[in-house]
Specification:
Layout: H1 4-11, E1 17-22, E2 25-30, E3 33-39, E4 44-48, H2 51-60, E5 65-67, H3 71-74, E6 77-81, H4 87-92
Amino acid sequence: MVLIETFRKLALSFPNAVEEPHFEKISFRINKKIFATFDEKNTRAVLKLSEIDQSVFCASSEMIFYPVPNKWGIQGWTIVELSKVRPECLKML
């Protein structure tokens, strides 16, 4: 399980990354572009992955990683179930 503190620390470890609100979620941005959001209520994150990375992670565990169910998912936006993922998996992204 990955807690918000762990996710926040990892997201903010990228150069120039900042945390800002995004509707009812928390977003992480670089140069004003969102690369991840965190939904504390549902213990989920959404990450922007390349198509290749998205296919690899989703194929490895459909219960933990899966595309956002709309055109955003086709563009690489991927849901991560933080209550099920190991911290080591997120560090690989």
